[in-house]
Design brief:
The structure is a homodimer of 199-residue chains. Chain A contains 11 helices and no strands. In chain A, helix 2 packs across helix 5, helix 5 packs across helix 7 and helix 9 runs antiparallel to helix 11. The longest helix of chain A has 18 residues. The N terminus of chain A is likely disordered. At the A-B interface, helix 7, helix 9, helix 10 and helix 11 of A face helix 7, helix 9, helix 10 and helix 11 of B.
Chain lengths: 199, 199
């Protein structure tokens, strides 16, 4: 019944989605995470809360969609030149998370993940979902012999994720120069074959 | 004058410091970062706000002192066995940041560092200040030949800091098994001498 109903109804108004996302992005950047409530989004966008709740279960999912979809557009098609590919990927990844709305939102999202503001659903959680496959593709395209077959690619990606986060959010880390180059060097080291063990 | 005045006055009542820190720890763990205000600390501890403000410029410094002093007690005296030393250091470091008060406080502190809640003072900022020297000591005690002389130890520590933070705060990363062992392997890889470049 639900399916039939949807197919004969009006097409979903995507302009509402866009308006909600635009207003949320602006609220995050200018008012901060705490002020970015469904109430505030509704007032600024002129869209009734019930229409917003029909599309998203809570403000958290709206904020995630604002902060992280950029990662889907981090289209870093692997060329097989590992260093160049990592450089483009890491630069794009870091700049997505460094945007004003993302910078304002990430600590709030981290806090929400610790609390029960949203139940954890391991598959839909956080940035890893969208950027990890691209990273895996880059590693897969690297020349034979340049990647240690024993390395755990998820561990390397998790390390990269944490490092980017620290460089954006932690003052002592953020203050260092050439952040992208440093991350590229670290990531290359984590991926390369190990030297022979000294005996 | 101030010095003379201090030397003839009553000795500083350290029990006030302890009471403030204990109450703050409890508030963080049970009420969360936002509720851990000077007002709340005052009410719970029975210590007047003016006495609190004489000791700390804002709640941020109290919270940092609650969350991070554990790092000073992360006494990991280097033995020269790099893997064992890293394992003890990383386990202690991660468990300090994983305590309930720390877990509740870190996202709030990260948010505060992004806003103007506290001016940035690069020397007094964040965890790096207390655990970094211990990490440097461990690396310095490692056997000759086990550390790449070209590696930037600060970069490795920053990477470790970000990785620990991600493992504590980001659900997709936190879900992986054997976190300390994974971090030890990553850190060892970042420190070891590079293999000869394949030609």
């Amino acid at each position: 019944v639900a399916t039939a109903k949807r197919s004969v109804g009006r097409p979903r108004d995507t302009s509402i989605d866009e308006r909600v996302l635009d207003v949320t992005r602006s609220l995050l950047a200018h008012q901060g995470f705490d002020q970015t409530t469904i109430q505030a989004i509704s007032e600024r966008s002129g869209i009734h809360p019930s229409a917003i709740y029909r599309r998203w279960p809570s403000r958290i999912e709206i904020i995630e969609q604002v902060v992280f979809p950029g990662l889907n557009s981090v289209k870093v098609k692997p060329t097989g030149d590992l260093r160049a590919d990592l450089h483009r990927f890491i630069r794009a990844y870091a700049s997505t998370l460094d945007a004003p709305a993302a910078r304002a939102a990430i600590p709030g999202l981290l806090a929400a993940y610790q609390s029960s503001e949203r139940p954890r659903t391991s598959q839909s959680d956080w940035v890893a979902v969208s950027a990890r496959p691209q990273f895996v593709d880059i590693v897969a395209a690297a020349p034979r012999g340049s990647i240690d077959p024993h390395v755990d690619i998820d561990d390397v990606f998790d390390t990269l994720l944490g490092s980017v986060m620290a460089r954006i959010l932690v003052p002592t880390v953020a203050g260092r120069d050439r952040p992208v180059e440093r991350l590229v060097v670290m990531t290359e080291r984590l991926l390369m074959p190990l030297p022979e063990k000294p005996s």
